[in-house]
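Each letter names a residue; structure tokens follow underneath. Both lines appear below:
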Amino acid sequence: MDPSKPVRVPLPEQDILEHLEVLELTESDQVQRCDELITQHHYLHDASLVGEHLRYAATYRGQWLALASWSAAARHLKARDAFIGWTHEQCRRRRALLANNARLLVLPETQHPNLISRFMRLMLARLSADWERRWGHPIALVETFVDPALHRGTAYKASSWLQLGQTAGWKRDADDFYLRHGTPKQVWVKELARKACAKLRAPTLPPAWAAVEERVRPKCTYRVEPILSLMEMLRDHLPEYRRPQALGYPLAGLLCLIVMAMATGVRYGADDLADYADTLTQGQLRALGFRRDRRTGCHRAPKRTTFQRVLEVVYAPALEAVLLRWQEQLLGPSKDPLVVIDGKKLRHGGREIVTMVDGQGRFLGSALTPDKTNEVPVARELLARVDLEEKLVLADALHTCAETARQIHIEQGGDYLLTVKANNAVLHRELGNLFTEQALSPSGHAVNPCSNPREELPEGGDPGSRLPRSDPHPGGLSGRAAGGTAGESDLS
């Protein structure tokens, strides 16, 4: 025995299990040491992680016994997605609620019975809370892969994980490129939340989980056919203003892309439009008429500066007219009786836009609010563009004014339902009085012009029948003009 080497004393198993602790590795030196040990001792010899991630160590009285790392879930996993039962789009938007146990390693010379199962149980008990503290959302379900040629998945089985099947034997080699490695892996999953799968495939997520969908970058899901129909109409009504040599991105294609982006939820300007354009497939880029890159042979997506230049020169009213015509071509004329108008501040833009839609959310028009004014006159201009006959206009309290009401009802033949708030004191008080219960007058004089309120009306019930020239009217009203005197002639 070499006296210079320390003597390793076997650790008592029960004492280890009772005093085992899970340490989240957050310090740079801890992370570096963890990755070095995994690279050295794990059979994959790779410690790299993708997306959101966490690292843990199982410790006994300060000594590291085992390591685990967690990362973002796999993008496409047939067995997992079938187990959850969600759609492809739900998977794309909600995948952040899943985590992948990327590495699990028991360090050499620390092999103890039940160590890894105890480590897994303690780790899973805190994983969701740690993930929410670090990344802003919880974890609903976890997954992992096991190579059946090397392991049997005993640690996962002992921790109540469920084996779903095997992968198809592919691995992701780039952002959207896969290579076949020919070694299928077992797929194991475990729900961390009660009825996690049912909640993940539900139409709406629980409030505590909903934030993950808001962070997902919108993706173009339109098929080529509607893209081509809009492109054709844009070419016919919005002529190209640039030289043919500069048409790497034709105007019709750019405007069609902007329309699709807005319909998908992109709202914040050229940067977000560029991010959205990066999600387009080669088929979509080809349908938009974008040129190929000479070096790669792939169709290119436009960048931020391209969108900025187009947005600065396009004539908004002409584009709006084309979009309304295209919308009517696809959907037919709007038959909804509601017209809803509202103004919103544009984030990061410092401008306000007034938008008009029907009760189904169908676009009817929009306009920017000029500087040093508000949305009220802009709303009147928008309303003047549409036929309001047999329509009901809804608007907030800012639009509750005589000019707007007169335009809607008198000039354009529509009806309105406008909000009245307490800051419009006179109108608010008058409307309140209309809905206040009034006491009935004990005297009949206020409603009955007869000199003697106890005297019965003559047959026919017309209180004006005793007045001169007041023959009973079939509708119960006097045949003379309202407010006329006995000597005035009747109005025909």
In short: The CA atoms of residues 131 and 138 lie 6 Å apart. The chain has three domains: 13-215, 224-321, 337-434. DSSP finds 17 helices and 14 strands in the chain.
